[in-house]
Amino acid sequence: ELKVEQNPLFLSMQEGKNYTIYCNYSTTSDRLYWYRQDPGKSLESLFVLLSNGAVKQEGRLMASLDTKARLSTLHITAAVHDLSATYFCAVDIGGSQGNLIFGKGTKLSVKP
Amino acid sequence: GAVVSQHPSRVICKSGTSVKIECRSLDFQATTMFWYRQFPKKSLMLMATSNEGSKATYEQGVEKDKFLINHASLTLSTLTVTSAHPEDSSFYICSADPYGTLYEQYFGPGTRLTVT
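YS: structure for the whole thing
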């Protein structure tokens, strides 16, 4: 059974600090996605990582993928309150359909 | 581009009734759409893959007779929750792949279903 594990599940951090969210998965995959979800809202796509060693950055967020280690990271630099949300990683399990298996999500709270 | 809409955004229905949720791709055609459900403070679980012109593919443990999926056109998929029960109350989210290359899925805004 494919498992996608995120940690931490809850993260409270102060503005200006840095932190990393980890996403481990248990099967071979070369497609990994990061999404943001605000309360009561749907998912907003943040990053699409398609190959080993892929690194993408957008603003204060940077995502990377190590397919050999089956690990993706989402690094937050100098956090601001607006980043407070739940972040999900999702792994494409392949096949003919784009089936995504989601991690449990990391609820990030950035405090002033 | 790549906008996915859902209707309704919120619905309340009584136990035993059926409710239909629509998922539309507004500016692209999607031969495949996906339906997820999300319980409060939980992650998303794939329910089924909706295929235009053919039967949906359901994930293990999802009752196909309870969650009827119809992908009638290249821009519309519907999920009908039949004989709804309170435990069906959830946030239902659809997604579509605008490029047909499995590159990325775009998610609809979700439908919050409450069964009383």
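YS: worth flagging: Chain A touches chain B at residues 31, 33, 35, 40-45, 48, 50, 88, 90, 92, 97-105 (CB under 8 Å).
IM: good catch. Also Residues 7 and 22 of chain A are 5 Å apart (CA to CA).
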